[in-house]
Structure of LacI family DNA-binding transcriptional regulator:
Amino acid sequence: MEVYNISTIKDVAKYTGLSIATISKYINGGNVLDENKKIIQEAIEVLDYKRNEMARGLKTNKTMTIGVLLPSLENIFFTSIVSIIEGILQEKGYGTIICDFKEDKELEHTKLEFLINKHVDGIIMVSYSGEKKHIQSLIDKKIPVILLDRMIKGLDCDIVIADNLNASYQAVEELIMRKHKRIGIICGPENTYTADERRKGYIRVHEDYNVDIDEELIKNADYTVVSGYTALIDLWNMDKRPSAVLVTNYEMTIGAIMAVNDLNITIPNQLSLIGFDNIQMARIVRPPLSIVEQPMKEIGETAANLMLKRLSDDYSDFPSTYRLKTKVHIKESVSTNI
């Protein structure tokens, strides 16, 4: 049988000749003399010392873990943000437990309870249910919660979101300025915050420019590839077709492009098209696809840094709402309507 020797903080103290208090102070990020830093780090490497986070958690009431709760790990928008969050938290010594509740409201509650039972120090989440009771109970216990992407009405909570209303407003405005009047939009599910905001932006820009709205041009899909495909076909099969279409998330954009290909629609001669979220995809498609770019990097950085601020017990600006600007990149998939 192979025996593994596990080094302890006492072994590090013995190696260095320093007190356990000094070693502990260094490990937990406190200030120690430079000469002591060097010898402690040397001892840690030589002895292959690993901090016992479970024991540390019992003493400090911290587990150095953050729960991340998402509706889908298949969604490139969410996974891109989580990758950024995880990197920043890791630099500060925090691990992450990532849970996917598969856009199931009951599973969302189950996974939230799972994270609570794991005694995570904070939770960064996208709520699909919009249920505020459980989240409020966490906030009341001073467990930091950062909401992403979707607000919950009546809940005082930190939130980091893209400016969804202006994202669609600006995209449709680009089309109206190019003389398009029949503009289709493929939205997400009704009563979903992001979809509702993007729909509002679509309606508001039509009102501001005195362009009539045909309700048949507003298609409510479900943020999946299949729903984007179906919605684009439905728009194209209308007696009075749109001259342009805005698709309001990445997966539905993929579906819409598949439909365009299957229907042999010529872009932009027969239809101008604006998609969402993926700049790399915009460069692959021919002609290059116009895209609404959400600030995924900035959302991830803001959420992670806000979580770290709350974990340091700084609630001076609570609750904070960060509504981050999007960008519209108009490429060859959009032309002037004649």
Remarks:
- The CA atoms of residues 147 and 159 lie 5 Å apart.
- The mean pLDDT is 90.
- The first helix runs from residue 9 to 16.
- The first strand starts at residue 65 and ends at 70.
